[in-house]
Amino acid sequence: MKNILFYLSVCLVLVAGVYAGEVVTEENITTGVSSGDPVVIFTINGDVTVSEWSSDQVEVIYIITCDTEEELDFITVECNTSIGIICEVDYDSAWEGSHSGSVDFVVQIPSDIDLAIELASVNGNVSIDGGKGEALLEVVNGNIEADGFGGELTVNSVNGNIDVSESSGIRTAELVNGNIECIVTALTNDLELASVNGNITLYLSTDAEVEIETISGIIEIADVFNAHISENIVGTSSEFGDGEFLIEISTVSGCVIIDK
């Protein structure tokens, strides 16, 4: 059990001002974490940006931006630091979507501590650069970027693009409308890439067994993979490669491109 007195420190800094006709409020929270602790960020309108640093603490800065000071009253950000940190944005029922108001999060996490990370935005972008442990990244309307995450990674988007690179533990990247680009130089488990309406591009430079299916799209595979593409009754498919892990790629309406 972690020593609360040693690891837990919470620093709150509140800054408010008016910039170019906007009201901006910024708050900083810093808390110590141990292996397996959660880092959970959920925002409705706004971006979530996460990067790693050398500290053994997590720093969360959230910025609330509104057109007027009165609209600040409609927005509540609750952060629980009893174990790790869990932050959630809530809009008062009086807001009713007719007012301005966004909450962006800028987060720094330890580079060498495994964490249980969940990042989500309804309308906004989510990105993570570095980090370890397990991570779930989700958006409804927005883009997702993940670079150099060390651990099991799951990525889901409804409307937006997904870009994943140098994250060998990527397990799933799924979206409804948008494109997926994935750079894989190593794998530590099976991988599934799926899109309903959009293209999937995979840059693959490690051994893997690859299975591809698309219903109404084309498949392009670099000659270096020596792959055969088959026209089926419904759609197009291909299988190639020999490796410890399986990569499954599927689209309903979109192209699949495999390159080195």
Defining key terms:
twelve-stranded mixed β-sheet; mainly beta; 260 residues; disordered N terminus; single chain; globular
Largest sheet: 12 strands, mixed
What is the C-alpha radius of gyration, as a whole number of Å?
21 Å
Number of helices: 2
Element-level helix/strand string: HEEEEEHEEEEEEEEEEEEEEEEEEE
Number of strands: 24
Q: In angstroms, what separates the terminal alpha carbons?
A: 46 Å
Strand order of the largest sheet: 1-2-5-8-4-10-12-14-16-18-24-20
Question: Strand content of the residues, in percent?
Answer: over 45%
Q: Could you say which overall geometry the principal axes of the C-alpha atoms support?
A: globular
* Nearest-integer average pLDDT: 90
Unreliable residue runs: 1-20
Derived structural class: mainly beta
**Oligomerization status of the protein chains:** single chain
Assign a percent range to the helix content: under 10%
